[in-house]
Write a structure and sequence with these properties.
This protein is of the alpha/beta class. Helix content is 65%, strand content 10%. The protein has 33 helices and 16 strands. The strands form three sheets. It has an eight-stranded mixed barrel, surrounded by seven helices. The protein has a five-stranded mixed sheet with strand order 2-3-1-6-7, sandwiched between helices. Strand 6, helix 23 and strand 7 form a beta-alpha-beta unit. The longest helix has 67 residues.
């Protein structure tokens, strides 16, 4: 009965069973196509929201940067001493006290508006936290509870947080699977946003670098140098933009009078009044750059909206095709049902196989209509089979076969094929963009070498491999010698070429699995595996030799051959417990020792160096304690006329009795430099010697016009607070400027900060001298603000004919320039005669007298006066 009832079912049921399989398959495939297009639409919408969020966050970041300067100015003008140190005149100070609070209030209002204008969302979640941070730092600043460094760090931290969120929004927008037309425009937004970020914080950092002191000033100056350097680099990247309209807008912005009114290089040397005076110009430049950023964002939004429109139209077509397919299927069922009967049963099995996407080979019998249905079913099955094969290829990530197969004829098949191609292209674009972003994040843009993050990752892998499998990891810290002179004399473009050449030379010396990276500046790091100590040292020597090979550069049409070398610090790790940071620190210590030993060599970080480090740390600790306790004293070494013996000056020598061991002169100065106490020692020496000179001048009411010479450490000579230290010493001792003379080492002669300090002090009567060993080019001497040149003891005592020739040349050049020539460290009559023959008119050293205490110096002076009187 059941069987009869099944045989007696109508043709509608049979036809429905036949058509149901392809209809359902088409519906399922159509749903996938629709879902794919919906995903494209959602990604385009997400990209639009992220770009809008990026623009809003840029406004917040720029407002925070612009609020920083008036905040610092208000804090400075509250303190008269800080205002005076900042260089503001009384008139400027009065004007700032009237205008600065109003400017600060306006800046805060703009910041609050920018924060309030941010659209809530995951990309802008940082805005409330930044607003809360700003409220806290404002309260502390208004109450006078925060120092300048704390305010600077708080604002920079808030700005960096917003900037990071802005960068993440741009990156997420770029990785949202946009088209080939939209992705470059999103990249343009990131480039312009980075430019505006570096521009807006230049002026606050310049003001901070001008008013801060000590390490805070160094950090502010370093941040300013990084911001201006990055800005200068990005200014020339306009050609990398994707559209000619944006490139022209970029060129107009960079060439505008507003942008050119602020020289990024000169910003690094602004004093505080100059930085405040440029605030309006900086705001105008920020406005120009903001319009440029808005143009880039609008361009990217337009491209994203175009993608969205394209996806929505494709979605509409897909839906329409699906509906049409279903309608045609139903209509065909109705028509065929009226004209077809029992032969359709034979197609049921074929329909079940077609559901699995298998091709059909079905011999058909019956009416022509049935054969037509069979042909259609066969074609449908073939199409489903091909679609299944392509879908499986996409699922495996094998994109080539998904595009290589010949598409099935038909509008629906074309839509499916177009969808597959869109998916394949989107995946390929995403992978390419991801690879590019990864490369940029881990490589130095100038040399193409891995950067610090990449080398730390490589060191992590190497240390883990050594811990697991044994072997060794060698870290070679390469520091260029003479690179600063290349930048100073040939320009930064030549310096960049030297860095690129050095990178290529280092790469050429390495094995395939070795890693060379640029840490920054003129510092490189090489990581080599499975080298013993001798092999690692040999590699270091090859690196030194490769870097030291002659260079030929063309600068302004002139062929230059700068001399660049390298010092290498080496550490070999063969056990557990090592970390990348510790290995880099040890290699850095070793390269510091290599430079101290004369440069151009390889120094291995071993047990001896560890002991030396421990001893140096102990000396630094004891010296710091001795300075705090006043346990140092000043010894005085006389400088006399080379022929008459008349006293010309006193040379102040620091003396320290450390646990029974006497340290004097360069030993104490070197220990102070190593401990970072160069300025502390120099300030103490200036005050102590000035007070003693004042006592000598006032004794018995008889003035003493013999000046006092103080040797400055390189760090103190370049310190911006040297002027204050010298002024404090002279004022405390009630001495005129001519009573004090300063002496600096030869290496300081090319430091712009030292030259500026000496020239400024010379204007108030303080004399300056240079101790020369022959390494400074003679052409540099005329530009130095010095009145005397001291011949170094090594140069005076050397018996090397070449050194004697250098002695004669340096002395002759100094005489031609009208400088007083003094010989130092003279121990024998032969050395005295040699110095006098070269042109020295003054002399000091053991042959004259050893450094002595103040009482001994007074007695020595009295004996000298008595001896001179007896001779006359």
């Amino acid at each position: 009965m059941t069987r009869e009832r099944r045989r007696g079912r109508s043709v509608w049921q049979h036809l429905a069973a036949l058509v149901a399989v392809p209809v359902l398959a088409t519906a399922a495939l159509s749903a996938g196509v629709v879902q794919s297009h919906l995903g494209q639409v959602d990604r385009a919408v997400a990209a639009h929201e992220l770009l809008t969020a990026s623009l809003e966050l840029d406004a917040v970041r720029r407002a925070v940067d612009q609020e920083l300067l008036p905040t610092l100015v208000v804090t400075v003008i509250r303190d008269d001493a800080a205002t005076a140190r900042a260089g503001f005149s009384p008139l400027e100070r009065a004007r700032l006290r009237q205008d600065a609070p109003e400017s600060l209030a306006q800046a805060r209002t703009l910041t609050d508006r920018a924060v309030a204008a941010v659209t809530p969302g995951r990309a802008t979640a940082v805005a409330p936290a930044v607003a809360e941070q700003l409220r806290a730092v404002r309260v502390a600043a208004d109450a006078g509870l925060s120092a300048l460094p704390d305010q600077l760090n708080a604002y920079l931290s808030a700005s960096d947080a917003v900037r990071l969120a802005e960068t993440r929004a741009s990156v997420r927008a770029a990785s949202a699977g946009l088209s080939e037309q939209s992705a470059p425009r999103v990249h343009d937004v990131g480039l312009v946003a980075e430019l505006t970020g570096h521009a807006s914080r230049q002026l606050p950092l310049a003001f901070a670098a001008a008013v801060l002191t000590g390490q805070d000033r160094v950090l502010a100056a370093r941040a300013l140098e990084e911001a201006t350097g990055s800005y200068e680099h990005l200014v020339h990247q306009g050609d990398a933009l994707s559209t000619s309209v944006l490139r022209n807008a970029w060129a107009q912005a960079m060439g505008s009078s507003v942008a050119e009114s602020i020289d990024a290089t000169a910003v690094q040397h602004l004093d505080a009044p100059a930085a405040v005076s440029l605030r309006a110009a900086s705001s105008l430049r920020d406005a120009v750059l903001t319009r440029l950023l808005r143009s880039a964002v609008d361009d990217a939004l337009a491209a994203s909206d175009a993608d969205r429109g394209t996806s929505e139209r494709a979605l509409a077509r897909a839906v329409l095709l699906c509906v049409l397919a279903l309608v045609l299927a139903v209509a065909s069922t109705l028509v065929v049902a009226r004209r077809t009967a029992r032969p359709l049963r034979r197609l049921s099995e074929a329909a079940r196989r077609a559901l699995d996407g298998e091709p059909l080979d079905l011999p058909l019998r019956g009416p022509r209509e049935v054969r037509d249905v069979g042909d259609a079913l066969r074609s449908t099955a073939e199409g489903l089979h091909r679609v299944r094969v392509q879908a499986e290829a996409v699922a495996r990530g094998d994109l080539g076969p998904a595009l290589d197969r010949t598409p099935v004829p038909g509008r629906l098949a074309e839509a499916v094929q177009d969808s597959l191609e869109a998916v394949v292209h989107a995946v390929a674009a995403r992978d390419a963009l991801r690879a590019e972003l990864v490369h940029r994040a881990t490589h130095d843009p100038l040399t193409g070498l891995p950067n610090r993050a990449a080398v730390l990752s490589a060191l992590d892998d190497a240390v883990a491999r050594v811990a697991a499998d044994g072997g060794t990891t060698s870290v070679l810290f390469v520091d260029l010698d003479g690179f600063k002179q290349v930048n100073d004399r040939c320009g930064h473009a030549a310096g960049d070429e030297v860095l690129r050449t050095t990178a290529a030379r280092l790469r050429a010396q390495l094995r395939g699995d070795d890693v060379v990276a640029r840490l920054g500046g003129d510092e490189f790091v090489v990581v080599a595996r499975d080298l013993d100590a001798d092999g690692a040292r040999a590699l270091g020597e090859r690196l030194v030799a490769a870097v030291s090979e002659p260079l030929e550069l063309t600068v302004d049409g002139t062929l230059r051959t700068p001399s660049v070398g390298a010092s290498v610090g080496l550490v070999v790790s063969s056990g557990g417990g090592a970390t990348p940071a510790r290995l880099l620190r040890k290699a850095d210590t070793a390269v510091y020792r290599a430079k101290a030993r004369g440069r151009g060599c390889v120094v291995v970080h071993d047990a001896d160096l560890l002991r030396e480090e421990a001893e140096r740390d102990a000396v630094a600790h004891d010296l710091r304690a001795a300075l705090a306790a006043g346990a140092l004293e000043v010894r005085y070494e006389p400088v006399v006329h080379a022929t008459s013996g008349a006293l010309l000056a006193w040379h102040a020598v620091p003396h320290w009795d450390r646990a029974g061991t006497a340290l004097s002169g360069s030993e104490v100065v070197g220990a102070a430099e190593a401990a970072g106490l160069g300025r502390d020692l120099g300030r103490w020496l200036l005050h102590a010697a000035a007070v003693q000179t004042s006592q000598w001048r006032g004794r018995d009411g008889a003035p003493d016009d013999v000046p006092l010479t103080v040797r400055l450490s390189p760090a103190h000579a370049a310190d911006g607070r040297l002027l204050d230290d010298v002024s404090d010493a002279l004022v405390t001792a009630e001495l005129p400027g001519r009573a004090l003379a300063l002496s600096v080492g030869e290496a300081c002669g090319t430091d712009p900060s030292v030259v500026w300090n000496l020239r400024t002090l010379q204007a108030v009567g303080v004399l300056a001298g240079l101790e020369a060993s022959g390494s400074t080019p003679l052409r540099e001497l005329p530009a130095l603000p010095v009145r005397a040149l001291a011949l170094a003891a090594d140069l005076v005592s050397s018996d090397d004919p070449a050194q004697r020739l250098v002695l004669d040349l340096v002395a002759a050049a100094a005489q031609r320039l009208g400088l007083l020539v003094a010989a130092t460290g003279v121990t024998t009559d032969d050395q005295l005669e040699r110095a006098v023959a070269a042109g020295a008119t003054a002399v000091r050293g053991p042959l004259v007298a050893a450094p002595m205490t103040a009482d001994e110096a007074r007695c020595w002076r009295a004996d000298l006066v008595e001896a001179v009187s007896a001779r006359t």
